[in-house]
Design brief:
Blueprint lengths: L6 H15 L12 E6 L10 H19 L3 E3 L3 E2 L4 H10 L3 H18 L10 E2 L3 H16 L3 E11 L4 E3 L4 E2 L2 E2 L7 E10 L5 H6 L9 H11 L2 E10 L5 E6 L10 E4 L6 H5 L5 H13 L2 H5 L7 E9 L6 E7 L10 E4 L5 H10 L7 E2 L19 E2 L10 H15 L2 E6 L5 E2 L1 E2 L9 E4 L3 E4 L27 H4 E3 L6 E4 L3 E2 L1 H4 L3 H4 L12 H7 L2 E7 L5 H15 L9 E7 L2 E3 L2 E2 L10 H8 L1 H10 L7 E2 L2 H18 L3 H5 L11 H24 L2 H20 L7 H15 L4 H10 L23 E8 L2 E9 L4 H8 L3 H7 L4 E7 L3 E6 L1
Parallel strand pairs: 1-2, 1-26, 3-4, 12-14, 26-27, 28-30, 31-34
Antiparallel strand pairs: 5-6, 5-9, 7-8, 9-19, 10-11, 10-13, 10-18, 12-15, 13-14, 16-17, 20-25, 21-22, 21-24, 23-24, 28-29, 31-32, 33-34
Helix pairs in contact: 1-25, 2-19, 3-4, 18-19, 19-20, 20-23, 22-23, 22-24, 23-24, 24-25
The structure holds one RNA strand of 86 nucleotides.
Length: 826
RNA sequence: GCGGGCGUGGCGGAAUGGCAGACGCGCUGGACUUAGGAUCCAGUGGGUUAACUCCCGUGAAGGUUCAAGUCCUUUCGCCCGCACCA
C-alpha cells in the first residue's frame, strides 16, 4: 500500500471484481434466516439525484450489515418505468418513450454501480417490460373477476390547455403541473379499483404495523377518514322522492332549518324542473362546474347558496324545510347532501346568518344558556338535548344513538359508517403505460382478455400528440381485434393503467423475476415476504404505501400470497436540502451525485450523506462536510498504509492479560463494536455510528504513536480489522482494499460482523461526579464496582467537598452507582 | 381550521431524567513547507477572574423532581400533511 488514497482506481477495481465474482447474487433459499431489505425503486428520469443517493446508501448499509450478521439478505433494484415524463419527452424531442426510458435506465444503473450498492442485479425488473406488464395485466384480471375492478362515469381532472386528463398527482395547487393552467373537472368513463371495500381492514391493520413511523400511520388514518353517523331520509314535499343526508350529528336533527344539495347532485334536475328558479340555478350549476378544483374546494371561497323552490319533511318533526343547492357541498362525500343545523355547525351558522335562516338551539351546554339572537358562533361541543321533543334532557352523545334508533324504527334512517377514502381511479388516457386488458364487443359487452392472450402488447408505432385521448385510440391495428367470447369484431380498451398499479406489486416480482408461469413463484414469495425493511421518501406515505397494502390484502384473499401486510418495518427518509430548501432544478441549488463521486469517490459521498443527519430527518448539504468525510477516509488510509505489510505477519490471536495502553486500546475497540452495532440495529442512527468509528480512528492514531516495544501487535491487528469491519457497510471500497492489503482472504463483505467481548469493555476505575444541590462540584476516580454506601463514604472524605458543605446541614445524599453522588444541603 | 414534527454553539448535529454541546465542519494560534485549499499539534458556548474559581446558558414562562434539553402545563416561531369531509 502506498500513502496515496487513490479512490478512483480502487473503487473501479472492486466494482469490477464484485461483479465478476457475483458476491451480491443471492440464492432463492437458504438455511440462514431471511431478511428482505428494499428501497423504493426509482422512476428512470435520467440521472440519480441526492434523494436517490440517500435512499440507497441507507438501504445498502442495512443490507450489508444484515448480511454480515448472518442473514440471507434479498436486496434488489428495478425501475418504475412507465409514466408521463417519457411521453412528454416524446412529444418534445421526438424520441420514442421506450428508447428514452431504456437509455435512462442504462445511465442510472451505471450510476448505481458506481455507488457500490450491493444489489443483486440478476433480479432487476422494469415495469415497462412486457415480461413484467404481462403480469400487471394478469393481476388486473384477477381484480376484475373478483368484482374489484369496474368502470363508471367520473369527474376527472382536465387541463384545457394541454387538452388531456391529468392524474391527481399531476395537479399542483389546482393547476396543470406542466403549463399551470387551472384544472377543471370533466365527466368521463373510467376504470376504478374498489379500494373502499378494504377501507376497514386498511384502517384496522395499521395497528399491526409497529415498525412504521407514527406519522405515516396517522396520515393513512386521516386519508381513510372513517366517521360514524347516520343516514337520514327526508321526503320531498309533494313529490315521490327522498333526499338522504349523511350526518355525524343525528342528535341535532331537531335543529335542522334547511337542506343543502351539491350542485351536481342527480336529484337537482327533478327538483327544479318547471320551477321559476330553474334558469338561475342552471346558470349557477354551470358556473360551479367550470370552476377550477382549487377555487371549488377553497375554504376561503364565499359560501353561495340558491333555493331550489322545493321543500323537505323532517322525518321526526314533520316540519317543512327549504331545499337549497350550495357550492360548498361536495357530491363525492357522504350522500352529496347535508342537513343545515346553524346552531351547531359553524359552516351552517355562517350560511344561515348570510341567508337569514332560523338558528335553533337543540344542544345546551352545561352551565350555559345559548341564545340564537346573540350567538357569535355555532356551539359544536357536548351538552344536553333541548327543543327535541321526547329526547329533551338526554345528553347529546346518547342522543345520537337514540335518535338514530328511533329513525330505524320508522324506517327513515340508519346507522352508517362513512369513509373519506374514494375508489382508486386507475385509467389514464395515455400511451406509456400498461394497456388495460379489456375488449368491448357489441354482442358480449365488456370482455376480459383471456389470460393465455397476455400480454396485450403496447404498440410501438404511434403518434405522440396531446389530443386529449390515448394515442392508442388512433392506432387501428391496436384497437380493432376479435372478441374472445363470440369471435366477432371487438375494440380494445385504449386507456392505460395508473403507474401506481405497477409499483403496487414489484416487491413480489423480485423474488422470482423471470417467472413465466405466473406473476411469481409462490414458494419464493412465501419465503421472502413480507419485506423486513422498506426505505423511501415520505412523499409516498399515502398513495404508494396505501395501494401496496390494498394489493397485498387482495392477493391474500386470492390466496396468492400469505402475508396481510407487505412491509413490516418502514423508514421514511428526510429530504436533502441546500441552503435550507429542497434541492430542485428550478431553484438552481442542485448538487449532482455524479460530480461528488467524480471528485471524492463513492465511499466519501455515501459516508457524508449518512453522517450529516439521522436518516429520517432533513439533511442540509454541505460541501465542506463532504470534504471532512473525505479527510476522514484519507486518515483511515494513512493509518493502515504503513502497517499493512507488518500486519500481514501478525497471527490472529486473542490478546490476553493486557495492561495500560494495550488494554485501553482493546477496550475502545470493543466499546466501538458495541456502540456501532446498537446504533445501526436499534435505531438506524448511522450518524452516531460513524462518529464512534471516527473516535476509534483518533484513538488508533494515538495508540500508533507509543513505542513499538510497548505495543501489542495482536491488539493492533484486532483493532484495525475491527475498524475495517465496522466501516465496511458505510464505505465498502476502501475497507475492501485495506482488508486485502492487510493479508485477508475473501471479501470483507462476506465476513461475520464482529461481536464485542464483555470482559474487554470492563473498566477498573471510573470518574464519578459529585453534585451539591444538583450542581457539579467535583469529579473523583473510584473503582468501577464501588457500591452506593461506599460511594457516599468516599465522597464525604474529599476535602474539597467537605469545605463546600462545612457550614451547611446535609438533608440527604443520593448515590447513583457508576454515575454520581448528589448531596442535598441547606 | 384539523393532524403531525421540530426549536440545543458561527454551522450539521450528540446527550436510557444524572457531567449539555460527543463527532464533524468552520474559526484562532502554532509546526512542517519555496508554497498550499496537503498534513500534524493546541484552542474554540457566553460572561467573570492574575489564577484557583464562580455565575449564566438547550425559543419563552411556569411546574414536577435530590437532579430537566429530556417529563407536565401554557405560550411563541418554523416545517410538513390534510383541508368546506357535514
Amino acid at each position: 500500500m502506498n500513502d496515496n488514497y487513490d479512490f478512483r482506481a480502487l473503487e473501479e477495481k472492486w466494482q469490477a471484481r464484485w461483479e465478476k465474482e457475483g458476491i451480491y447474487q443471492i440464492p432463492d433459499f437458504s438455511d440462514r434466516p431471511k431478511y428482505y431489505c428494499l428501497e423504493m425503486f426509482p422512476y428512470p428520469s435520467g440521472k440519480l439525484h441526492m434523494g436517490h443517493l440517500r435512499n440507497y446508501s441507507i438501504g445498502d448499509v442495512v443490507a450489508r450489515f444484515k448480511t454480515m450478521q448472518g442473514y440471507h439478505v434479498l436486496h434488489p433494484m428495478g425501475w418504475d418505468a412507465f409514466g408521463l415524463p417519457a411521453e412528454n419527452a416524446a412529444i418534445k424531442h421526438g424520441v420514442h418513450p421506450a428508447k428514452w426510458t431504456f437509455n435512462n435506465i442504462d445511465n442510472m444503473r451505471a450510476q448505481l454501480k458506481q455507488m457500490g450498492i450491493s444489489y443483486d442485479w440478476n433480479r432487476e425488473v422494469a415495469t415497462c417490460h412486457p415480461d413484467y406488464y404481462r403480469w400487471t395485466q394478469w393481476l388486473f384480471l384477477q381484480l376484475f373477476h373478483k368484482g374489484l375492478a369496474y368502470k363508471k362515469k367520473a369527474a376527472v381532472n382536465w387541463c384545457p390547455e394541454c387538452a388531456t386528463v391529468l392524474a391527481n398527482e399531476q395537479v399542483k395547487d389546482g393547476g396543470c403541473e406542466r403549463c399551470k393552467t387551472p384544472v377543471i373537472k370533466r365527466e368521463l368513463s373510467q376504470w376504478f379499483f374498489k379500494i373502499t371495500a378494504y377501507a376497514e381492514r386498511l384502517l384496522n391493520d395499521l395497528k399491526l404495523l409497529e415498525g412504521w413511523p407514527e406519522k405515516v400511520k396517522i396520515m393513512q388514518e386521516n386519508w381513510i377518514g372513517r366517521s360514524e353517523g347516520a343516514e337520514i331520509d327526508f321526503k320531498v314535499d309533494g313529490m315521490d322522492e327522498t333526499i338522504t343526508v349523511y350526518t355525524t350529528r343525528p342528535d341535532t336533527l331537531f335543529g335542522v332549518t334547511y337542506l343543502v344539495l351539491a350542485p351536481e347532485h342527480p336529484l337537482v334536475e327533478k327538483l327544479i324542473e318547471g320551477k321559476r328558479e330553474e334558469a338561475e340555478i342552471r346558470k349557477f350549476i354551470q358556473k360551479v362546474r367550470n370552476l377550477s378544483e382549487l377555487d371549488r374546494t377553497s375554504t376561503e371561497a364565499e359560501k353561495i347558496g340558491l333555493p331550489t323552490g322545493a321543500f323537505c319533511i323532517n322525518p321526526l318533526t314533520g316540519e317543512k324545510v327549504p331545499v337549497l343547492i350550495a357550492n360548498y357541498v361536495l357530491l363525492e362525500y357522504g350522500t352529496g347532501c347535508v342537513m343545515g343545523v346553524p346552531a351547531h355547525d359553524q359552516r351552517d351558522f355562517e350560511f344561515a346568518r348570510k341567508y337569514n335562516f332560523p338558528i335553533r338551539v337543540v344542544i345546551q351546554p352545561a352551565g350555559d344558556k345559548l341564545d340564537p339572537s346573540t350567538m357569535e358562533a355555532a356551539y359544536e361541543g357536548e351538552g344536553v338535548m333541548v327543543n327535541s321533543g321526547k329526547f329533551d334532557g338526554l345528553p347529546n352523545k346518547e342522543g345520537m344513538k337514540a335518535v338514530t334508533r328511533e329513525l330505524e324504527k320508522l324506517g327513515k334512517g340508519r346507522f352508517r359508517v362513512n369513509y373519506r377514502l374514494r375508489d382508486w381511479l386507475i385509467s389514464r388516457q395515455r400511451y406509456w403505460g400498461v394497456p388495460i386488458p379489456i375488449i368491448y364487443c357489441d354482442n358480449c359487452g365488456t370482455v376480459p382478455v383471456p389470460e393465455s392472450d397476455l400480454p396485450v402488447m403496447l404498440p410501438m408505432n404511434v403518434e405522440f400528440k396531446p389530443t386529449g385521448r390515448s394515442p392508442l385510440a388512433d392506432c387501428p391495428e391496436f384497437v380493432n381485434t376479435v372478441c374472445p367470447s363470440c369471435g366477432g369484431p371487438g375494440k380494445r380498451e385504449t386507456d392505460t393503467m395508473d403507474t401506481f398499479m405497477c409499483s403496487s406489486w414489484y416487491y413480489y416480482r423480485y423474488t422470482s423475476p423471470r417467472e413465466t408461469e405466473g406473476p411469481w413463484d409462490k414458494a419464493k414469495v412465501d419465503y421472502w415476504l413480507p419485506v423486513d425493511q422498506y426505505i423511501g421518501g415520505v412523499e409516498h406515505a399515502i398513495l404508494h404505501l396505501l395501494y401496496s397494502r390494498f394489493f397485498t390484502k387482495v392477493l391474500y384473499d386470492l390466496k396468492l400470497v400469505n402475508t396481510q401486510e407487505p412491509f413490516t418495518n418502514l423508514l421514511t427518509q428526510g429530504m436533502v436540502l441546500k441552503d435550507g430548501v429542497k434541492m430542485s432544478k428550478s431553484r438552481g441549488n442542485v448538487v449532482s451525485p455524479e460530480d461528488i463521486v467524480a471528485r471524492y469517490g463513492a465511499d466519501t459521498a455515501r459516508l457524508f450523506i449518512l453522517f450529516a443527519a439521522p436518516p429520517d430527518r432533513d439533511l442540509e448539504w454541505s460541501d465542506q462536510g463532504v470534504e471532512g468525510c473525505f479527510r476522514f477516509l484519507k486518515r483511515v488510509w494513512r493509518l493502515a498504509a504503513p502497517l499493512a505489510d507488518f500486519l500481514k505477519g501478525v497471527p490472529l490471536a486473542p490478546a490476553a492479560n493486557l495492561v495500560g495502553a494495550n488494554r485501553e486500546m482493546r477496550r475502545i475497540t470493543h466499546n466501538t463494536i458495541k456502540k456501532v452495532t446498537e446504533d445501526i440495529s436499534n435505531r438506524f442512527n448511522f450518524n452516531t455510528a460513524i462518529s464512534a468509528i471516527m473516535e476509534m480512528v483518533n484513538a488508533l492514531y494515538q495508540y500508533k504513536e507509543i513505542p513499538e516495544t510497548d505495543r501489542s501487535p495482536a491488539v493492533l491487528r484486532e483493532s484495525l480489522d475491527t475498524l475495517l469491519l465496522l466501516l465496511a457497510p458505510f464505505a465498502p471500497h476502501i475497507t475492501e482494499e485495506i482488508w486485502e492489503a492487510t493479508g485477508h482472504e475473501g471479501s470483507i463483505h462476506q465476513q461475520p460482523w464482529p461481536a464485542y467481548d464483555p470482559e474487554a469493555i470492563q473498566e477498573d476505575e471510573i470518574t464519578i461526579v459529585v453534585q451539591i444541590n444538583g450542581k457539579v462540584r467535583e469529579r473523583l476516580l473510584v473503582p468501577a464496582d464501588l457500591p452506593p454506601e461506599k460511594m457516599q463514604e468516599r465522597v464525604l472524605q474529599e476535602p474539597r467537598v467537605l469545605r463546600l458543605i462545612q457550614d451547611k446541614k446535609i438533608i440527604k445524599i443520593i448515590p447513583v452507582p457508576g454515575k454520581l453522588v448528589n448531596i442535598v444541603v441547606k
